[in-house]
Amino acid sequence: MSLRLKDKPESEEVDAEAMEFDIDADLADDPPIIPLPTRVPDPTSSFDTQFTAFEERMTAMHEAQKKFLQESITSMQEEQRQFFAKMRTFMSRFPPP
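The structure assignment produced for this chain is given below.
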């Protein structure tokens, strides 16, 4: 808070009535006033929204993993089918003793 003296020399005593507040200087020294929001958001609704988004991401990841595993199993089954078909052909050409 800055104070300005009414043109009094420093050597003289200054009483309280001689002091005058400089309002502009006082406001310039203070940080700006930021008004508070009139409505505080409900923290539980924010958590619900975040949880719902998290749940959707987890479901999507689960579905992607399920699809990947199903495709992998189908691919392995096809490879196994081809292997046994070749083995049958081999065994028919070269029967065991």
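Interim note for the steering committee: The mean pLDDT is 79. Strands lie at 3-5, 19-21.
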